[in-house]
Amino acid sequence: MHSFVNEWADEFSQINDAIQDKASESMKSIKANQMRMSTVFRGNNINDKKLAELMSWDFDILDTKIEQLIVHAFTIFDTWCTSDATPTETPAANPDMTGVEDNVLKSLAINKKKMKNFIGATHSNYHNDNPYHNFKHAYSVLTAVGIFLQNGVDAYCTQVDTLALLMASLTHDIGHPGMNNDFFVKKKHELAIRYNDAAVLENMHAALTFEILRMPENNFLCGWNQKDEQYRQFRKHAVAVILATDMKIHFELTSQLQGLKNKELDANSAQEKDLILSSTVHAADLSNPVLPTKIYWCWAYRVVLEFHKQANEEKRLGLPYAPFMEPHPDNEMELAKLQIGFIQFVVEPFWGTFGALFPRLYNFHYSKVHILRISTDAIFVLRYDRVEMLKLNLEIWKTKKAELDKIKEQKDAEEQAALENA
Fold this sequence. Notes:
It is a single chain. The chain folds into two domains: 19-292, 3'5'-cyclic nucleotide phosphodiesterase, catalytic domain (Catalytic domain of cyclic nucleotide phosphodiesterase 4b2b); 346-421, no CATH class. It starts with a helix and ends with a helix. It is 56% helix and 4% strand. By secondary structure, it is mainly alpha-helical. It has a two-stranded antiparallel ribbon with strand order 1-2.
């Protein structure tokens, strides 16, 4: 199991066929917000969706325009309210979070204009030509973290923690250059030298987040005294949860979470809080396989396309490469095998534990979901809680692989018969 996960031990991204050093670009040139926010937020772009609609596993991010996602992201920040929730019990406060007395931005004196600029600058500093590690992936992680906060994680959070968690989820892959950590170490790239070969990309993401935040036009914390404990806690948790997205520590997080399964959760424990916050963003970053199947398949195709491009570039440079990264995602057999392994050895052990800690994530009801078969069909099935959705997706990939195995066996038998009759 560990040998498989070691191959997954870094996050991957796309490179253009014309080689670009996106890492150096992100290190040396922070982009200002390249979108006119007054245009993005005016007229028919004004967001009329409620938070409950945005915080949905069924929301198709890939089919939504970037400008609308920017508006959605601000809406999530702008309407977020804290509650008196516990890890296992539904809060007594309004579940639609429509109150104003506990609104996070109002309570923390956040500058909303600068918040909008920050979100725009965040988008501009993602390499959005990447098929996977781009602003849409970032928004996906933001919404997953929001769902977790609404379903138990909020019990561990002050308003400052909540704001840090939401911001970090949106920026956790900012500036992702299109290669994994191991690539930069093998190449002896300046990014690996800067961060001593350890969590190379994650350190860059965290640093870039705060470099963008420090720009006067983006600094939505401008009303804070940065020498105060409030800012120190904000920065501490934001940096920590970004660094925890490094897959090198995946097994460590999984083991620590499993240690909480048979004990009563203590939201007042600082150690437990740090673990839960880090695990929350990590779980969100691994959440594709718990999505409705059609949406999950689209994300899986994109990340495997990045694997394929990375392997080709490593071969071109004469660097070692992971064989599982080489196939193109149009190779359905390899795609199915890869997703089966990813779910079984990476996602299921972690999500099975994380989901068990927060039973409010379990929401049985009927809804339209998309199931991947030989073709893509939309049918009505029981929408499972996320762990059950994960298991359902695993069975779908296994069925797909079995069908492809059967087709291959038949083809091999026909070819063998043809040879014998020749």
